[in-house]
Amino acid sequence: MYSPSISGVATSSISGSRIFVYEVEGMRQSCETDQTSNPIRRSGSVFIAVPYDRMNQEMRRITRMGGKIVSIRPSNSAPETHGTVAPELGQQSQKSGETTKPMTQAKEKIQVPVNLYKPANPYIGKCISTEELVREGGDGTVRHVKLDISGGNLHYLEGQSIGIIPDGTDKNGKPHKIRLYSIASTRHGDNLDDKTVSLCVRRLEYKSPETGEQVFGVCSTFLTGLEPGADVKITGPVGKEMLLPDDEDATIIMMATGTGIAPFRAYLWRMFKENNPEYKFKGLAWLFFGVAYTPNILYKEELEQLQAEFPDNFRLTYAISREQKNVDGGKMYIQSRIQENADELWELVQKPKTHTYICGLKGMEGGIDEGMSAASSKYDVDWTAYQKQLKKEHRWHVETY
Ligand code: FAD
After folding, report:
1. Ligand 1 center to 47 CA (angstroms)
2. Looking at residue 17, what is its pLDDT?
3. 372 CB near ligand 1 (under 6 Å)
4. CATH superfamily of 123-238
């Protein structure tokens, strides 16, 4: 069971993050069975993947559905789980119902949940709170949105995303399509009780090129405008590109622009804020964070507090484009910081324990490559070829949108 310690730092048992597989007979086919678990069927039995902390709840649900549990086993020993796959880091496939494979870098096999809830039967979560993250004088609206997911089987890992189906219909009267959002909380959620998921959402607003009118994005406006208690349709989780390695001695280089901070907040909270017995980070985490103005530095206080508390393990480098100047007198974008630190970064990326993650605005990769290319060319190394190799080794991870 996951429980906060006296200091406000969480403690958990290993079992808190484990998945078990129930083999169930006699379960009535219904909306509920289809919606909550998407069980695998074989000769009258269904197999349901259940997180440790939801076992009792799931047992009650199965009994309610007329089912009888004939076996329970840890999913590590199960060749089949449904909608839950064990990854090798960086694998791209996100199909549901894949077979379980061992995760090469894990101490024990870790199951990555994928597509537990699909668009036809989304999980209905509830808004707990939304909190403005842009301070006075900053640009736009970005909110930390916390959703209750305690009622079903939705669970996730750091670095994954969930889909949101906004309320209402599009201009053709059809339900809106899903939009993806990177998860900003650890697998245990902000309340450390495994019952919430948090997002970091920028409200899209722009001037229509045709009419000059202010236009607001459908889903981002829906999410940032949620009132506590409101229902939210959630799908997923999806994504294996941005998973954090289990290696406690790894070097984790993170490059974020704007809401690209979301997965990195989850990593950093897991590394430094939670006291997980199965993961005690002892390596180096280095965050490069690009924003327009100081008030746009999302989660600023918490990031700086972490840096003050863990100066040997966490480096924080901002690029504040509208306030700082780069060496050439131009705007300080994230790529300028990468170029400033390129030699050190080049040293780091060559180490087998280093993983680099890029998340945020599309287009941020170009400048990063330029910086790395300048550094590697000093040693006659072609950056494009080297990066290809890093990607092959699942040590160069990119999620831009
Ligand atoms: P929509 O109503 O869908 O409007 C978007 C459309 O508006 C665009 O397709 C384009 O046609 C038009 N448009 C946009 N800007 C302009 C412009 N300047 N001029 C003219 N037309 C324009 N977003 C977050 O805020 N936080 C996240 O953590 C996050 N994570 C993501 C993770 C992934 C893997 C992906 C793929 C996307 C992520 N996004 C995230 C983006 C998110 O999915 C949505 O795309 C975003 O919120 C906008 O959706 P919307 O419904 O508000 O906008």
Report:
1. 37
2. 53
3. no
4. Translation factors (2.40.30.10)
